[in-house]
Amino acid sequence: MIPDGRAGIVGYGAYVPRYRIKVEEIASVWGEDPEAIKSSLRIEEKSVPSETEDSATIAVEAARNALSRAGIDPSDIGAIFVGSESPPYAVKPTATIVAAAIGATPDLTAADYEFACKAGTTAIQTCTGLVVAGMIDYGLAIGADTAQGAPGDPLEYTAAAGGAAFIIGRDNLVAELEGTYSYTTDTPDFWRREGQPYPRHGGRFTGAPAYFKHIINAARGLMEELDLSPEDFDYAVFHQPNGKFPRRVGQKLGFKPEQIEPSIVVDRIGNTYSGSSLLGFVRVLDQAEPGDRILLVSYGSGAGSDAFSFVVTDRIEEVRERAPLLEEYLRDRVYVTYGEYAKMKRKLKF
Amino acid sequence: MNRDVAIVGVGMTRFGELWDKSFDDLFVEAGLEALEDAGMSGDEIEAMYVGNMSAGRFIDQEHVASLIADRSGLTPIPCTRVEAACASGGLAVRQAILAVASGMYDVVLAGGVEKMTDVTTEEATATLATAADQEWEAFHGVTFPALYAMIARRHMHEYGTTREHLALPPVKNHRNATKNPKAQFRFEITVEQVIESPLVADPLRLLDCSPVSDGAAAVIVCPLEMAREFTDTPIVVRATAQASDSLALHDREDITTLRATVEAARSAYRQAGIEPEDVDVAEVHDCFSIAELVAVEDLGFVEKGESGEAYHEGMFEIDSDHVAVNPSGGLKAKGHPVGASGVAQVVEIVEQLRGEAGKRQVDGAEIGLTHNVGGSGGTVVVHIFERGD
Amino acid sequence: MGGVPRFWRSIDNRYRLVGTRCENCGEVYFPPRVVCPKCRREGEMKEVELSGRGEIYTYSVVRVPPEGFEEKAPYVVAIVKLEEGPLVTGMIVDCDPGEIDIGTPVEATFRRVSEDGEDGVIYYSLEFRPVRREE
Description:
The complex is a heterotrimer of chains A (about 350), B (about 400) and C (about 140). Chain A is an alpha/beta fold. Chain A has 13 helices and 14 strands. Chain A has helices at about 25-30, 35-40, 55-70, 95-100, 120-130, 205-225, 245-255, 255-260, 265-270, 275-285, 315-320, 325-330, 340-350; strands spanning about 10-15, 20, 45-50, 75-85, 110-115, 140-145, 160-170, 175-185, 190, 200, 235-240, 295, 300-310, 335. In chain A, the strands form three sheets. A nine-stranded mixed sheet of chain A has the order 5-4-6-7-1-8-13-12-11, sandwiched between helices. The radius of gyration of chain A is 18 Å and the shape is globular. With about 400 residues, chain B is of the alpha/beta class. Chain B folds into two domains: about 5-120 and about 210-225, Thiolase/Chalcone synthase (Peroxisomal Thiolase, Chain A, domain 1, 3-Layer(aba) Sandwich), CATH 3.40.47; about 130-210 and about 235-385, 3-Layer(aba) Sandwich (Peroxisomal Thiolase, Chain A, domain 1). Chain B has helices spanning about 25-40, 55-60, 65-70, 90-100, 120-130, 145-160, 165-175, 190-195, 225, 260-270, 290-300, 305-310, 330-335, 340-355, and strands at about 5-10, 45-50, 80, 110-115, 200, 205, 215-225, 235-245, 280-285, 325, 365-375, 380-385. In chain B, helix 4 packs across helix 14. Chain B is globular, with a radius of gyration of 19 Å. By secondary structure, chain C is mainly beta. Chain C has helices at about 5-10, 10-15; strands at about 20, 30, 45-50, 55-60, 75-80, 85-90, 105-115, 120-130. The longest helix of chain C has 6 residues, at about 5-10. The interface of B and C includes residues 122 and 140 of B.
C-alpha cells in the first residue's frame, strides 16, 4: 500500500511506567531457574504499571509527548485511534479519554482498535489513509498496554506495560512514509475470551506459523512493492515478544545485527504488546539521522503483521528534545518485589 | 442582642460506643437530664434546635427534626435541625440563643446528637469525610485526618512545632477525662504511646485523632430576666459568634490558621468586652491534636506558632494560672459524637462556671469560652459565658 | 464521589487543569469558580489552562485509606502551589514518601484515581509527580 501523496510522522512520543520487576524476583517465587529463563527469553526485567496507571493513562502520557514534538494545536487532530488489548473498559473507548485529556474534542472521529500487539500500527495505517485522502489534517495513532500474564505462566516474565503515540500528517514530517504492507490470516496462536482475565496461547504454535510467517511475509511483501532490499534499510524494527524472536526473524529476512540491535528494548522493559514494536521504533527515532530508512514490522496474534518503510527527515533533530527520550524512561526505574507486583496487579488483573 | 440570655439547664449522655442506645434513646436521655436540671416538665419548651451532622448516612434517616420532636413528646413545637459538620452542635446552641435574644421565644432547648456506630468504621470515616470538599479534596483520596495532617506538617515547617508537641494535648485531655464520668476514654496515655501509635496520615497517629462515638447533649436557654425561675446558678451568654471560611483547605490564605476561628473569636471578645487573657476555662475543638495547638493560637491564648512550647510548660492544665483548656477531656478523650460535641462543650463550661465540675473543677472559673469547628475550618462557632451573679 | 454527570462536568478541569481567571483582578483560580471572591459582581471569569508545574506546599502519607483507595495505600496526598498561583489538592505519585518534602518541584501527570466499584465509571484526573527531567 503506497500512499497517493505525502504522509508521515509529525510527532512521536513514548511512555513507560517507572516500576520494574526482575526475572530473578519472579523466578524465585515459582522455584524456577532465572538464568535459564533469561537466556531463553533474552530478557532481564519488565515494566510494571503503578496502582494509578492503566493503558489509558499510558496512552495519554505518550500522546502528550507526541504533541510536544509535533507542535500542533490539539484541536487540529481529526482522528484518534488507540490500539490495546488491555483497555480499561470493554465498552467505552480509550480514544475519547485521550481526546479529552489532550484537548482534541469535539471535532474529530475516534475509536479503539484490537488486534493483539499490532493494534497500534493498524491505527497508523488508518490515520495515514485519512490524511492522504485529505479528509483530516492530523491523525493520532497510539499503541498502549498493561499486558496480562497469569501467575506462574511463562508470559508472566514478559507481559509488560508501556505505549507509544504517533501524530500522522502531511507536512513538517520527522519521518516520511514510503509505503505499508499488511499480511493477515486467521491464525489462533494467542487469544483471550471475553471475561477471562488472562490470555491463552498455543505454546510453540506461536512461533513459525504465527510470528515468523506473518512478519516475514509482510516484510517481503513491502520490500517487493517498494523495490527495496535489506541493505537499503538503516534500521529494522520488529515486534518484541522476547529477545530471541526479533533477532531471529531479522536474520531470516537478511538483516544484520547492527540494523536490529538499536531497536531492542524488550530486555529492559519486557513485551509491551501494542506498544512493543512501536517502542522499538521510538528508540530508533530517538537516535536516527536525517535520510535514514527504517523498516518497522509489527505482529499481532490472531494473526497479522503491518510493515512500514519510513525515511527520517531533517526536522527530527529539531523536535527530538521536546519530550523525554525513551532512554530516560528506561533509566528512571524502581524495582518492586513480587509481593508489591501482586498488589499492583490486583485491580487491573494483569 | 435585644435581651440577655442565660443557660438554665444542661444534660448529656455518656459518650462512647453505646451499642444498646439508639439515636432516639440518646437524644431523649440528654433532653430529660437537661429538663431535670432546670426543674422543668417540658411544657415550658417553646422551640428546639438540634445539631446533627449526618443522620442520613449514619442511620439512613433525614428529617430528624420531626423525629426528635416526636420522640421527645414535644410536638407540635417548632423543631429545627442544624448542620455544619462538626460545628452542628455549637450552631444549634447559637440558633437557640438568637431565637431567645430576638424575643421570639422565651424557653428554647438546644441539643446535639450523633449515632455513629450503627455503620462500620469505614462507613463512619467516609461520612466524616463529607465535611471536606468532595470534588476537590476527597476525590483525590484525601481523608479527614490527612487534611489535618497537612495542617500539622505546614505548622511544623513554619513554626518548628515538633512531633512531641503534637502529643501534649491528647495526653492532657486523657488525664482530664479520668475525672469525667461521662467521658469515652477514662485512662491516661503517655507521650511515648501517642508517638508510637499506628500512623493514620503522617505525621498524625491513632492517638492524635478523636474517636468515633455515640452521644447526645442538651442545654436549655431562656432570657436572663426569667432565669431565676429555673435555677440559682444561671450562666449568662456574654457572646455568640460565628464565621465561615472556604470549604477546602487549599483555598485558605494561610493553612496554619483557621481564619473562621480568628474572626468568630474577635467578634465574641468584642461582644463580651473582654480580652483572651480574661478567659478562665475553654472547651476547644480538638478533633485532632494539631487542631488544639492551632485553636489556642487562633483564640489568642498564645502567640501564633508558640502553642507547642506553651503546652510543654503546662500552660493549659486545669490547675494552671492560664486558661484551662478542655478540662472535660476534649473531643479526644471525652468522645466526638459529631453533632453533640458543640453542645457538650457548653455543658462542660456551664458546670465549670457553676462550680459543679467535681474533680476537674477549674478554681474560681468565672468566664468560659466554647470553640466548635466544622470540617477543616469552614464553619466556626464561638460562645463566651459568665457566671450570672 | 458518585454521580456520573457530576464527574463528566468536571472532565476538562480534571484532565487538563482548566481553571478560571478573573479578567478584572487577574487572580487565577483552580478549582474553577463561577464568582471571583475578590470582585464578586465586578468580576469576569474566563477559562484558563494551567501548566501543571508547581511545588509541594504541604503533604501527608495516607496510611488508613478511604473506600476505593485500599490498594493504593500508603500514598502521598499534597497541597501543591501551582506556578500560576493557586493551591490545589492532589496525589503525589511515582515517588517514595521519603523522597519528597515541602518545596519539591512537581509536574502534572494523567492518572487513574479511583472507580465506582468493579462495574462503575473510572475516575481519571491529573495528579502530580516529582520533576525528574532536567529542562
